[in-house]
Amino acid sequence: SEVIQARVDGVEAQLGEIMAGQFSSSTKMSGKAAFITGYVDDDSESDTDSITMEYMYQLNLNTSFTGEDNLYTRIKTGNVSDHFGDSSQGTYLSAANKNGGTLKVDKLWYQFPVGDSLQVWVGPRIENYYMLASSASIYKPITKQFANGPNGSSYGSSTSPGFGVAWTQEVEDPSAARWAVSANYTAKDGATSSGDKGMFGENTRNFVLTKIEYGSPQWQVSLATSFKEGAGGYDGYYHSKAADISDADITAYGLRAYWKPDTTGAIPEVQIGYETASVDSPSAGQAEDTDGWMIGLGWKDLFVDGNRAGIAIGSRQAASSIKGGGSDPSEDNTVWEAYYEFKINDGVTVTPAVFGSTDVEAEGKDITGAVLLTEFRF
Predict the structure, then answer these.
(1) pTM score, two decimals?
(2) Which of 18, 241, 299, 345 has the greatest number of CB atoms lying within 10 Å of its CB?
(3) Residue 237 has what pLDDT?
């Protein structure tokens, strides 16, 4: 028996050495690689309409310490540049990454419950739309301007230090409608100690977002209200040039609604969104008010089970009034996209897509593009 016990002890010691070099059993890793092949015609004489091939690579680490919490880490890289990384003209892809091939910690936060109805987030690299009781939009976008249904002043913050909380009403029937309220704070300069910045400094560009929603898994209506101090359009993302007040204090509202059919196939999901914002004390010639909108349709299992399609159209947030008079050349801009996603197997999809815009960068300027997006998930 002593010999048997010695052998058991030896096996346990070897097993302990092996496990010491592995992830904790509570850590799960997944990932995605994207091959991006396409071109953009930006309606300029210098444009060559060259076909490019770029990539994005992403790893997701989810670690739980109690079974109910989650430490989320996203590591990401890519070499996307030029058109597919340009947010100003509506050609920035949701799959894009502009790290120049360098692996970086792209997101990092900790989420945990408080009781049965509250969720809490805190982290040094997070965006406001992750700290919500439910997503702002159900539409799956190709170009990032249609994310968050659409991207605009109310959502779409830059990755920053922040924290948030979300309360969801408890209902006995999971399919029943319920209320939910989310609130969060992000500071774009939260990692900067100088210049009276940091998390709560006087010169910190901060973003307070609240979202009130009512609905079920099949439908929802919501209103987001955000207050930005010194953040303006967050470096021009998804706004016209006249509506990008980068250092302004603004108050923004985002109205959203979605509906899903009972069955997949011919009847699409519908996502509707409207954005409006008011600028505090603009200078002459700057925007006083802005607005934008989108309608997105998504079909699951269209023609073939596992495949999906999407169409979206809208207007990027433009100035509806300018202090001292005048108008935004992009006030009547239009943006659109359409795609069909082929599911090759559980891990591989191929998605041809087309997209375009009019009057986004300048009145009378048209932009069109096409992309073949191949994604590998593991």
Answers:
(1) 0.89
(2) 299
(3) 60
Please give the pLDDT value at position 257: 98
From 305, 360, 350, 299, select the one nearest 329 (Cα to Cα): 360
pLDDT at 235: 46
Do the beta carbons of residue 219 and residue 258 sit within 8 Å?
Answer: yes
Closest by CA to 292, choosing from 311, 320, 322, is: 320
Taking CA atoms, 357 is separated from 91, 152, 202, in Å, by 9, 16, 39
CA distance 318 to 244: 8
How far is residue 337 CA from its own chain's centroid? 17
- Are the C-beta atoms of residues 162 and 188 closer than 8 Å to each other? no
* 201 contacts: CB under 8 Å, gap ≥ 6: 189, 195
5 SS3 class: helix
- Which residues does the chain have with pLDDT short of 50? 15, 18-19, 233-236
Burial class, 304, CB count within 10 angstroms (exposed 0-12 / middle 13-18 / buried 19+)? exposed
> Tell me: the pLDDT tens digits for 206-262?
999 999 999 999 999 999 999 998 765 444 467 888 887 767 899 999 999 999 999
**Cα 230 to Cα 252: distance, rounded to the nearest angstrom:** 13
What contacts 219, CB < 8 A, 6 or more positions away?
A: 257, 258, 259, 260
Bridge partners of 28, per DSSP, are: 62
The residues pairing with 221 across neighbouring beta strands, listed in sequence order, are 214, 257
- Alpha-carbon distance of 157 to 229, in angstroms, equals 12
